[in-house]
Every structure is written in C-alpha cells, then in structure tokens.
User: What shape does this take?
Amino acid sequence: MEHWEFVGRADELARLRSVATSESERGLILSGVAGIGKSRLLREAVTGLPTDKWAVFSASATIASSGLPFGGLAQILPPDPPAGLSPAGLLRWAAEALHTAAGDCPIVLAVDDAHLLDPPSAALAHLLVREGATLLATLRTSEPVPPPISALWTEGLVGHAELAPLHTDESQALLTALTGGPVEAGSAQRLGRLGGGNPLLLRELVMAAVRGGELLPAYGFWRWTGRLMLAPSLAELVDARVGSLTAGVRDVLELTSFGEPIGLPLLLRAADPADVEAAEERGLIRVTRDERRRDVSLAHPLYGEVVRRRCPVTRARRLLATLADLVEAVGARRRDDLLRVAVWRLDSGTAQNGALLLDAASQAFARFDIGLACRLASAAHDATTHSPATHDATTHSPATHETATHSPATRKTATYSPATHETATHSPATRETATIHKRAIHKPGARGPGPAVELLATALLFADEPEEALAVLDASPEDGARWATARATVEFFGLGRPEAADALAAARHADPADAARITAVESFIRLQCDQASRARELAVGVLGNPAASDSARGLARCVLAFLAALAGDPDGACELLTTAGADSAAWRRDIPALQYALQMCEGTLASVSLDLPAIDRIVTAEFATLAQIGGFGFGSGWVSLLECRAAWLAGRTDEALRAVEQACAALAMTRVYDGCAHFARALIAAQRGDHALARSSLEIADSGAGHATGLYYAWRQQARAWTHACAGDPATAVRLLLDVAARLRTAGFRAVELLVLYDLVRLGSPELAAARMAELAASVGGRATPLLVRHACAGTEGEAHLAVAREFSVLGYQVFAAEAAARAVQIFRTDRDPRALGASTLLADLLARCETLRTPALLAVQPALTVRERQVAELAAGGVRSREIADRLFLSPRTVENHLQRVYTKLGVSGRNELAPALRLLPQ
Assistant: This one.
C-alpha cells in the first residue's frame, strides 16, 4: 500500500505527453492543491518519453533549495560553475550546459513544485522555453509564483491548467489499487467522498482504516465499518493545508464545519465578513450557487473532521447553538432545516422540543441515516418524558465524535450540519450508542414505547443490531400494539424467528386500529414465511377494516402487491404500490419499516417481470444512492442483487458476479437475507461454468438459510438446479425444477413458475414445460412472457428460434437471445441447412456482447477441438489451401483433410465457407 499503480487522469496524462512531443507547443503548467496528484502525473508523463528522441531533464524544487542560486535545478546542472561569471553569464552557462547535454535532441524540462524555484532557476526555465525547450511544470494553488514562471503563461508561451480532483470512478480505481482488491460500493463512495478526490488524502484514509481494523475483507470485497481513524499523519496533512489561522478565520472555519452547507448571508451574520473573505481567498471554504442561494462549504471534507475534533467542547456547543438560533430566526425555510436545527440543538445541549426531535429522527430514518436516527429518536423520547438525564445521556462532544452519527449519505442529500460527519451508521460505534440509548430510554412510569422508541428499535434493526433493538424495547413498558409490532419486526427480520407471527396472532387488542396494525405486520411476516394464503387473508382484512390507519393499509397493500407480482399481475402490483407510496408521509413515522417493505416489493416486481427499465430506475433512484452510501446493509444488498439481475440478463456476467459479491458483502452482517445473496452468487457462478464457486456458495447459503426467507424458495432451488447442471448432472437439475414448479403452481405464483419452467427450456427439456407455459401466457403479464412461451414452443423450427433470438436481443435479454440462437444453429447444422451460416453469425455477434457464459445450450454448439484441429481450422477459415496448411504445420495434405473433416463434423458445418462464424462461437 506504500506504493500504488497510476490510475485515472487519462486525459491529463495524454495532454501532457501531447505537449511534450509537440513541435508547436512549448509547454504546460499544472496548478493544484497539495496531494492532488501533480507530482505523480508529471512523473508518469515524462517516464514514457523515448530518451533517444527527447532529452528529458527532471527536477523538483524544494523549500530548502529556494534560497540557493540555481538550487531548484541543481539536480540537472553540472556541479561546478565557472568562477567569476556575472549573473547573466551564469545563466548563459547553465543554458549552454543543458543544450550540450541534450545534443541534437529537443529538451523537455519537467519541474515539480515550480513555485519554489529560486530566481536564477526560474529565469533559466524561462530562457530555455524561449530558446525552444518544452516546459512541463507543477505549481501549488494559492502559492506565490516566481515572475519568470508566471510570465510564461501570461505571455502565451506555455499553457496553464488547474488540476481538478479525481472523479468518482478514478477515486474508486485508486481505492482498488491501494487495497489490492475491489472495495464494496457503499464503502468506496463514502471513502471517496471523504478523500475529496485528493489521492494523497485518500491514501492516508485507507492506510489509517486498515491499520485501525476498520477496513476489512468480506467475500472478496473490502468493507469499511464507517469509523474514521484520524491517524497523526493524516491530521498533519490537513493541518499543513489549512495552515495557521487568525481567531476570526478560525471562527469562520468552525462555523462552516459544523453547519455546512451554510447560507452565505447566515455566515456573514455570524462572523466578520472580512474573515469570511479571507477564508475564501485562502481556499479554505468554497461558495457555490444553488439557484438563487449562495451556500458555503469547506474546501475539503477532511477539514471538517480535523476542525471539529480539535474544537473545544464548550466552544463547539456555543457555535452549534448559534447556528440553530440563526436558522430559527429566519424561519427554517429550507427543506432540511428541521433536521439541521434538531442536530444542532442536540449537540449543543439545547434540545428540549420532543416533537422537533422526533420529526427530525423520522427524516433521518427516511434517508437511511441510521446512526443519526438512533440519536434523535432517543433524544426525542428523553425530551417527551422530561428526564433530567436527557442531555447527559444523548449529547456528546461534537469534537470527539464518540457517538455514531450521520453518514456521508445524509451530507449528499440533506443540508443539516455535518458536525459529526462520516462516522459509522452501523459500526461498532453504534453498539456504544445503543447502550447509551438503553440507559436513556428506561423511564420509570413511562406509558409505553411510543413512536420514538419504535423508530429507535427499527433503526437499530437496520443497523444490524437486533439484540440492541430488543433491549431498547424491553427497557420500555410492554403496552399496546406499537410495542408488539416493533418487537415482532425485530425478532423476525433481525433474528429470523418465524414464531414472531404467532405472537402477533395471539395478541388481543380491543381497539380496531391497534388490531389492524398488528394484523398488517403479521401479514407481512406470514408472507416472508411463505404462508401466502394466510398473508393474503390478513391483508384483505386490514383493507376492509374502516378503523385501519394509513400505515396499516400501506403495509397490507405491500403484501398484496408482493402476491400480485409473484402471481404475474404487474399492473395490479404497480397500482397497489403507487397507492401505498402516495401515503408515505402519513405512515413513515407510524410503521418505519414499511419504507423498506415498499422498496422490496418494487424490486421483486421488477425482478420477476424481467423488467430491465424498472430495475434501472430502482438502482438509479435516491433509495439506492442513500442505501449504498449510508451503509444500510439491507438496502445496499437488495440494490446490488437487482444490479446483478440486470447485468446477468444483459449477458454481462463479470459485472453480475461483482454485483452479487457486493451483495454478499453488504448482507454479511444480516441474519435473514444473507443466504439469498449466496444463492444468487451460486446461480451466476453455475451459468459461468464455475462449479467450485457455485457449490461453495450453496454451502454458505444452506448453512444460514432459515424459515424467515421461505418466500424465496424458488430462487434457492433454481440455484441448486443450475449448480447440478454445471456439474454435468442435468437429470437432477430437471427433477428439482419440476418439483419447485409444481409447488409454485399450487401456491399460485404463476410469474415465478413461468421463469422456473423456462429454465427447463434453457436446459434442453422444452417438452416438459411448453404446454404449461402456453397456459400461463394468458395470465402472466409483462413484455417478456410472450417471448419465453414462443421459445418454449418453437420445437425443431430453427427459424422460430432465430426470430425469438432477435426479439430477445432487442429487449436486452442477451443471455436468452444467445441460447435461442444456439438452438437455431444446432437445428440447422443437424439438417445441413444453409441457414446455419446466418444463425452462426448472429450467435457470434450475440456472444461478442456477452461475457463468460457456459450454459448447456451454448456448450452444445461449442464442441472442444484439439489444438491441431483448431490450428488447421483457423488457417482454412482464413482462405489458406490444404497444401499450404500442410507445409506450414509440417503435415501431409491427407492429414490436413482428415483434420478438417473431423472439424466439420464437430462443428456441424458443411465446408470452409462456414468455418469462420463457427469458430467465433468457440471460447478462446
């Protein structure tokens, strides 16, 4: 990790090399902040220049050399200048020395940190450019530049450009290079955001996280816990960039770090305008325009971490209270001001409004900022019960961040104070937080858990801390439907206990609204346990209960939407989900987990409908971004599984495998859905021909599978069947699929049954599926259904398979398209039909769009050739005559013909003109 390969900066690197080798351009100077990668980029640019064509002189100026004549370029000049020369003579001597060393080659002068050049060295660089040399140099932003260097671009002799921070993709590539392996998507985004596109700071972040045990491997990915370890080297780097501060500029920096992004008018009211100007001039803060507003934020995310941690507790509390007062004084008009003010009040010890805190907790939870939702929900309960221990239990020093608080996800989508940025939402810090919450929530004489405690318990559940969530509930009096449903939710989704549904069924509540709430949650749990009939009955009962709340109705609609999706009624499912989502403001606080239930329903509908546009909408929506960046394991894993599904259908199996392994990493801490990710991994591995990975994934999944994911038994059996097929046991695969199809038929899950039956078609047994699939065509919606059925019923009509393949391809189902085309090729070859050539060409084009695929349908047209057979076939396909092939390979012409006949038989072609497309179908 001390050294890493050069990544990113492709455009900048190409530009530098273009200038270095250009006959018309005389140079390029790059400016940038410390650590942005200027020096490494400059080295990479000149390293590849051929020394026989260009005379490359590289120097690096330093503070130590800046006071010595020619000290900045001493590395490239002769050691002993002649005595008695005037300054002008010395300049001429130095220039002649470099021209002599260059000989007839053009000079390329590469100077790192040119702002530190001493005056003679700067003058020499200027003179060399005027005499035809090319200058490539770097400068540090906001540092004074020697006049001879600045004159080069002001006079138009060389170009000048600002080196921007790394893009997101480049930061992620650098993370991979630093860790030596892929980094889980959410972790990569959070680390990349903290690094701010600065390679040096990102490197220090990663090294600190690895040394502190906060960046850990999981299923082939590095996963960050979210806890930020500010190593001394990292803090020193930030200190060097911030530099010494006056008291006024320090106040500006602290106010901005606690309140960013903060409106410029508010900052000017809280601090001296002259100090605000000074901070902006020094590059410590950045003013951006958002429509009619001007917001101020720190120039780099890590400035805030260092500033907040070093700010004394008393001053931090004063500044936070000041920020809250300022925003409240102008009416808290912005969308996120409620959350900002609540956080500031909480951290300043001035939080007394329980309703404000609860509203803010709900808002934080809605954005999957789990740690902050825990803190705010706990504080809301404390304020409601008027406990004197409220602030002692829930308020911590913003400077030390000992409590898990809001994550980078919030900072992207909200505008409240990042006073405790970037700490884990589900890290070991959350365990500390939960213990604090347990102490704070247990209030003698309290009347019941209330929405604050339920929200806290749900947030802890989403943070993969189900035991802590149960402890929170147990510390509250057992009173009412809210307590019962919160506990059942934690027990089932956190600990995988299906008996939680029975506990709800046994609960008795006279109030009809309470009864409807309990019934709705029981219905959702019954659904997950594969008790579909009972789940439907309960959900319908909730919708028929006039006393049912909006939240209970929303959850019931999610259950019915799940069932409609599985039954093949996408339109009905969409209508139910739209109605449930429209009431989100009403139910978000009442049943917090409903928000995730809605996302699960939408994803399931898109998955079973093979609706690629819908999957794309889900994975690019705000939920996916928040889930991945915020470290929300349930949500991040679910999004990754959908990404895997879409990539696999499109034939991008490398991408699908990466996505499913990200899901395994994201769900590693959960106890209920971890197995689902490994079953999906087994399925992808099997269809890539990797039986060892498929088998090991099944073993992991089987060891963790329980009754809590009974609804997903079809996916498990499909993975098992494909693993058997990959191992060369199609008979067992067919038997497993027939068994699960029969079970799905009994349950009425027609959409899933159709997909399972289609697997039989793909495995070469369409006769076992075609009739039933034709029956299902009338009741299963979705644009993929007619094509699946037509493929199953195509029989031995090669042209029918070919037509289906083309239509599959248009819809984006490249795997299905390739397999249909392969079947057409197989039929045409068997019949010695000349259409085999066109079918082979189509199949080759489809496979070119796909990554690794080793399914039975494709292997049937990809027979193994010996090395010699392949050599002969490739030469023959290239138009080489048999006698020439014999001469090249030292064979007899008869042996060549024998090889060709065996190749024709294996590939099912009739002659040389069909060899080229047939060979393209074979793996390289």
